[in-house]
TrEMBL record:
Alphabetized InterPro entries for the sequence: GcvT/YgfZ/DmdA, GCVT_N, TrmE/GcvT-like
Keyword Transferase in annotation: yes
Name of the encoding gene: Amt_0
Example of a GO MF term: aminomethyltransferase activity
Name by which UniProt lists this protein: Aminomethyltransferase, mitochondrial
Keywords: Aminotransferase, Transferase
SUBUNIT field: The glycine cleavage system is composed of four proteins: P, T, L and H.
Catalytic activity: N(6)-[(R)-S(8)-aminomethyldihydrolipoyl]-L-lysyl-[protein] + (6S)-5,6,7,8-tetrahydrofolate = N(6)-[(R)-dihydrolipoyl]-L-lysyl-[protein] + (6R)-5,10-methylene-5,6,7,8-tetrahydrofolate + NH4(+)
Gene Ontology annotations for the cellular component aspect, listed alphabetically: mitochondrion
Ubl conjugation listed as a keyword: no
Broad class of enzyme this protein falls into: transferase
Length: 225
């Protein structure tokens, strides 16, 4: 276990780093990424609010579609990278990095207050959901589909749905992840996160993976770290 952005995270589990890395490539692995900041943005001016802070074209996102974008400071410099999803439930779902969570949230809240002072309708809610990432091209879709009523084949990359996963309602499944593999991130009510994790780990193909494999997989795939 190692300290990371105020959290204690598992560097690796019993199988070790190398075995975990290779297992993700050959089968699939479950990563607990609940340290990521999840923010919900409500209000009729939510898109204008978000576009005043990021470089992405949020207005053009279809319902359920997300984009990787950059959060900028007042001078246009990069503060963080994050994913913004235009949900079908009339709010924006924003996932940003744990190491930047405090400064990201301060920027979001400050900008929201500025717009609210001029009569804009926007407000923020920090989600207390856990976030589980199931990653691995050979097995992920088969493992997850067994617990979904929705057709995972219709969920394309960077798209998101609100659904029930293995009997746990109120989950948001987004087809994304930074291992270089096909995968999903599942935002799940915190009180049922262990239950869902145990359901997924009941499949022999699924191993737990820690911070070391998450970093090395991203580096191997040539993704930002």
């Amino acid at each position: 276990m190692v300290p990371f952005a105020g959290w204690t995270l598992p560097l690796h589990y019993g199988q070790g780093h190398l075995q975990s890395h290779l297992h993700t490539r050959r089968h699939c692995s479950l990563f607990d990424v609940s340290h990521m900041l999840q923010t919900l943005v409500y209000g009729r001016d939510r898109i204008r609010f978000m576009e005043s802070l990021v470089v992405g074209d949020i207005a053009e996102l279809k319902p359920g579609q997300g984009t990787l974008t950059l959060l900028t400071n007042e001078k246009g410099g990069i503060t963080d990278d994050l994913i913004v999803t235009n949900t079908s439930e009339n709010y924006l779902y924003v996932v940003s990095n744990a190491a930047c969570a405090d400064k990201d949230l301060a920027i979001l809240r400050d900008r929201a207050a500025q717009l609210q002072a001029t009569g804009s309708d926007v407000h923020l809610e920090v989600s207390d959901n856990a976030l589980l990432a199931l990653q691995g091209s050979p097995s992920m879709a088969r493992v997850l589909q067994a617990g979904l009523s929705d057709d995972l084949a219709k969920l394309s990359f960077m798209n998101s749905i609100s659904t029930t996963v293995f009997g746990v309602p109120g989950c948001r499944v987004t087809r994304c992840g930074y291992t270089g593999e096909d995968g999903v991130e599942i935002s799940v009510p915190a009180l049922r996160a262990v239950e869902l994790a145990e359901q997924l780990l009941g499949v022999p193909d699924v191993w737990l993976a820690g911070l070391a494999a998450r970093d090395s997989l991203r580096l191997e795939a040539g993704l930002c770290l």
